[in-house]
Design a protein that fits this description.
Blueprint: E1 2-4, E2 7-9, E3 14-17, H1 20-34, H2 43-53, H3 58-69, E4 76-80, H4 105-117, E5 119-123, E6 133-135, E7 153-156, E8 168-175, E9 184-188, H5 189-192, H6 198-204, E10 209-211, E11 230-231, E12 238-239, E13 246-248, H7 251-266, E14 269-271, E15 278-282, E16 286-290, E17 303-310, E18 326-327
Parallel strand pairs: 3-4, 5-18
Antiparallel strand pairs: 1-2, 4-15, 5-17, 6-17, 7-16, 8-15, 8-17, 9-14, 9-16, 10-13, 11-12
Helix pairs in contact: 1-4, 2-4, 6-7
């Protein structure tokens, strides 16, 4: 479904296209925000981003509010035309664990949008707890099932193993891959559920699945509790699965997991991202992944930046020291 100025047309994830004037207004707000403090992770920077959000174009704020209330059948929203200061970008980073801690136009855009949807969040064990993280290919990590790899990234809910996984995942494209091979993939349970027979849905709703932490979290010794893959309202369930890390603990569960993967693949969309495109994924009802691509490691490779959003900070209060934005475990 394509959305321009709030009017839906077509099929696929909803889209919102900014006008040049609106993009210029957002860039001005981003540059003003960059002039306040240098440290993106400083809670005062987040507070300034929250104030700046209120000054952004009303049409964008309306679209974000509508998406937050109901993320739609695909559970994804694509905003096009955001400023990322593309002409001044340095070479694409190539180091593992790369993050954006210093103020930049792209970081300001992500933090303002995060404040419009809820609150930004990060995990101390992943990317050193930075609120804005680089998603770039890293030499030697080609087969890695994570943000540093370049093989096909299997469909997953972000941090599916965690009890306080993000409610939304935001991916802002700073630079597209030169070969135009990489594509963001999304697939929502709202469109996949009608394809699943009732016995499969019943099996997916039992706590017979185990999900391991992604490699980006490092070694973790504690056991991951068994959980259902589908839960909540049976007519509009949440989904919790990472096809690279989730397994069924019973034969019935494993068979249902394969059926779920097939159904999600059947309703999936592939979205090529260009500079200035922001993909927002409702991590409660929609999975995401990526097609394979061929990095050159010459400074011009695909470069996204990522920020997580929590819509209710209170639920994770025991994980966030000093009521900050970083989950300690």
């Amino acid at each position: 479904m394509t959305v321009t100025a709030g009017i839906p047309t077509g099929s696929g994830p909803a889209e919102f296209a900014l006008t040049p004037d609106d993009s210029a207004r957002i860039e001005a707000a981003a540059r003003d925000l960059c002039g306040t403090l240098l440290d993106v992770d400083d809670p005062r920077w987040v507070a300034a981003a929250r104030s700046a959000w209120e000054e952004l174009p009303p049409a964008l704020r309306r679209a974000a509010r509508a998406y937050r209330r109901d993320s739609g059948p695909t559970g994804a929203l694509l905003i096009r035309g955001l400023p990322v200061d593309a002409t001044a970008l340095p070479p694409t980073p190539t180091v593992k664990g790369s993050v954006q801690r210093e103020a930049s136009v792209s970081a300001a855009v992500l933090l303002m949008m995060a404040c419009g949807l809820g609150d930004p969040a990060a995990f101390r064990a992943e990317k050193s707890g930075a609120l804005v993280q680089d998603v770039v290919p890293v030499p030697g990590q080609e087969s890695f099932q994570g943000n540093a790899g370049s093989v096909a990234l299997m469909m997953h809910n972000e941090n599916a193993f965690h009890g306080h996984r993000p409610d939304h995942v935001m991916l802002l494209c700073l630079r597209a891959d030169p070969e135009s091979e990489a594509g963001l993939r999304t697939a929502g349970i709202r469109e996949a559920l009608p394809l699943l027979p009732p016995p499969v849905v019943e099996a997916l709703s039992r706590p017979e699945f185990s999900t391991q932490p992604p490699p980006s979290f490092g070694a973790r010794s504690e056991a991951t509790p068994h959980h259902p893959a589908l839960f909540g309202d049976p007519h509009d369930p949440d989904v919790r699965v990472d096809f690279a890390a989730t397994s069924g603990v019973t034969p019935r569960a494993e068979e249902a997991l394969h059926a779920l993967e097939k159904a999600l693949d059947d309703v999936s969309y592939t979205i090529p991202l260009a500079a200035g495109d922001l993909a927002i994924v409702d991590n409660r009802v929609t999975l995401h992944g990526r097609t394979a691509f061929s990095p050159r490691y010459d400074g011009n490779d695909r470069w996204l930046q990522r920020t997580f959003v929590l819509t209710d900070l209170r639920r994770s209060r025991g994980y966030r020291p000093q009521d900050g934005y970083i989950l300690s475990r």
